[in-house]
Amino acid sequence: MIIRTIGKSFFSGDKGTLARQIFYAIAGIGLLLVFIIHFFWPPVVWFLWLLLPYIALGLYDMHFAEHNVLRNYPVIGHLRYALEFISPEIQQYFIETNESGRPYNRMQRNLVYARANKGLDTQPFGTQWDILEVGYQRASHSLAPKHVDAEKARVTVGGPQCKRPYSASRLNISAMSFGALSPNAIHALNGGAKIGGFAHNTGEGGLSPYHLAGGGDIIWQIGTGYFGCRTDEGNFDADKFKVNANRDVVKMIEIKLSQGAKPAHGGVLPAAKVDEEIAKIRGVPVGKTVISPPAHSAFSTPEGLLEFVEQLRDLTDGKPVGFKLCIGSRSEFMGICKAMLKTGITPDFITVDGAEGGTGAAPLEFTNRLGVPIDEGLTFVHNCLVGIGLRKDIRIIASGKVVTGFDLMEKIALGADMCNVARPMMFALGCIQSLRCNTNTCPTGIATQDRVRARAVDVELRMQHVANFHDATIVSFRELVGAIGLDDPEDLTPDHIFQRVADQTERSSRELYEFLDDKELLSDEIRPSYQRDWERARAEAF
Q1: What's the whole-number average pLDDT of the chain?
Q2: Among positive and negative, which fits the CA dihedral 458, 463, 469, 472?
Q3: pTM for the full predicted model
Q4: Within 13 Å, how many C-alpha atoms sit on residue 152's CB side?
Q5: Are residues 80 and 201 in the same domain?
Q6: Pair (80, 225) in one structural domain
Q7: Of the candidates 420, 410, 418, which has an alpha carbon nearest to the alpha carbon of residue 510?
Q8: Structural domain for 422, as ranges
Q9: Domain boundary residue among 94, 114, 137?
Q10: Is the pLDDT assigned to residue 181 strictly greater than 80?
Q11: Measured in whole angstroms, how far is the alpha carbon of residue 528 from the centre of its chain?
């Protein structure tokens, strides 16, 4: 506890600036004192043999170190890594749990670090999981493994109403806004997307120059605040939208209805963070707190949502348009499905965010108590689209605690076509989970608008790390799919994934979750677990 307390108290708050000030003070005052004292006591010059290496190390840390922490905490930052070198177990005292107290698996975090740095991602001494633990998931290998071609790790997004479909990677960067993340962090993410050939979701904070700086493919997210395409009153501005949406790098448009970390809750950007640059990007006044409404003003019904989808698709001359949500009331999503049937308008994709998804800041009760977990939400959305006969026309993107190639395989087996990841990408940027995202004092320079701290993110280095993680995870995914005897991820089914349950037996995902038959919701024989919500669903109102 002592190590944890020291670590979290020093590597947080405003200590990053303080650490640099201490370094300059010791270096400057030390050199001055040596210079003055040597006139009276010449042997003091020998003190330079101690002071000069300290100065050299500090300057190197601030300008050339690969670790973000060392750039913000010259010299003293080595204490953290020295303790980890002595015993990897000490690492958990620095970054152990999230705010809810639920541990974020340390093995997964270390795996991300290894892949981002092209290090070893192998493990000695066998499995590190408790394979008898309730909830443990696995797949069964085949004695006739197959090779999965690289092109199978991509999927085309664009339904019958889309004129400009997009060939997407099955693994992309989830929504993280400029404002929540620093300019260097956003730039590095986008550059990584360019190197690796995958997409970068902007988050609802608008399309910033840093999203465009790396030249990577963009999924522009439009939230309830319509940042980057809003009128002075905060409503949707079609003309402003059209300018940015028709950039070549913008490949898809995502309408954000809700997110798993804080469903049915709008975002808040404090006045102190709203400088001239953010105000210009978001289209809001400088120095005033920005509050995103919990709901959209451009529509208020399922039919209105789909009309908005059609409007945005027309404004982009047919680019893929979809929406993102965390499942809450089942009948409300079914109302959207009924609206698809009634209007004939379909989205090109639906992003399903799990309640376990993260964010930089959210009310604790919203984070812990609202929303449906990713696996349940994903299977429900998949079932509804199958049940109305439109699954083949609409891609599903899964988001929420996806880290490894196995996670990607498991989500696709449950009904997803592709996945978005956020936290692993932050680890690739150098995140150490110091849990200061909501304070503007992130010690690694990632989740902050403090430009001095943000310089700790080496853009060229970190964009390569982001690409490395993506590429290694996709390779792992392809190898896993081949290991279970398939040569195409499209052939994955719920029968391929097994989970240990409370009676210490295993159940396949097919047994754990219900799966509807094609067009079952349009028939006279609907399963009781879906029938009541389907009967309550309305295309005319949420």
Answers
A1: 86
A2: negative
A3: 0.85
A4: 20
A5: no
A6: no
A7: 410
A8: 156-536
A9: 94
A10: yes
A11: 35
